[in-house]
Structure prediction request, 358 residues.
Amino acid sequence: MTNIKKIGILTSGGDCAGLNAVLMSVVNASAEKGWEVYGIHDGTDGLTNRPLSYEILTPENFSATPWPRLSGSYLGSLNTGVKESQEVLAQRFGEGVRELGLDAVLVVGGDGSMNIVSGYCKAAGVKMIGIPKTIDNDTPLTDFSVGFNTACQVCTTALDDLMTTARSHHRALILEVMGRDAGHLAMHSAISGFADICLVPEIPYTLEGIINKLEAVKKSGRTSALIVVSEGVKTEKGEAVTGAVNMVGEKINGGIGDYLSGLINANYKGFQTRVTKLGHVQRSGNPTAFDRGLAVVLGASAVQLLAEGHTNRMVAYSGGKITSFTLDEVVEAGTTGLNANSPYVKAARAIGMYVGEE
Ligand code: F6P
Prediction:
């Protein structure tokens, strides 16, 4: 058992649907145990910046309010790297935790956050439990992260909407979706949205393969087509289409949709192409029932792990079960991309979608 009385919780990395449902779950489950919950503002910033930025959370923050049903993070989040040294940040993080008297910190984050914040916690001797969330679904050792399902729904709805205009104008419409260097979001959405072509960073493609598929669509008598491309896809030769970086020098993905559109138009006259870059709406939308359920179960499980005296673990949904892994295992497994032999890729090929070369 445990002598926990006060915990902190923060959301870190890109926001997504379901974060507030996680907060509600953690706050309510903690209240049931008589624990106090400190909500840390803006990811780790609330603990590493001075003055500290936080608020005490109670069930009243979430019950009978719209918050658990909304996207975004009630607490704010942080999605850009920082140029200060990790040692300095870890030290300030630890001092912040001690100043607030927190017995443990729950971190709702993706693979990057699990890596960075578990490093701070280890260096500062702080107990941590991770809860996976990301629209990219690339957090290791969990089949699904909170927010992924809703992002798939947003992309699928976009494909439904694009299909009607593609049909009216006899076009091949390209939808560029997020996902960083992982193709999960693109592949799952392409399958749900019945796309003809899906390009992901993990599988090489050829222009010839794309054109052959478009030509096959045309020969079948259909006058429109849908193409999904993941933002992390490179040129046929494996070069990035943009050298764009954010304010701290990290790579910004995007632009592959326009690149492909130009390439197809220059080499094939069967369809006009147009591009929709879905952007940050993929991190929003009403959390789906699946994401709400996952958020509640993972949040309550994280609290239960602490109550049972466990620490330095990440809760996970693996093989249909709720379980947990050590943070060392999570960090060692690293970012998890789409397996080119996954049932999803196989099914996509089986139904005739072009998903790149075998
Ligand atoms: O990791 C989530 C994510 O939305 C990625 O899919 C995307 O590449 C990135 O964050 C965008 O980050 P930002 O909000 O900093 O532009």
In short: The radius of gyration is 22 Å. The pocket of 6-O-phosphono-beta-D-fructofuranose is lined by residues 14, 79, 134-136, 178-180, 231, 253, 283 (CB under 6 Å). The mean pLDDT is 96.
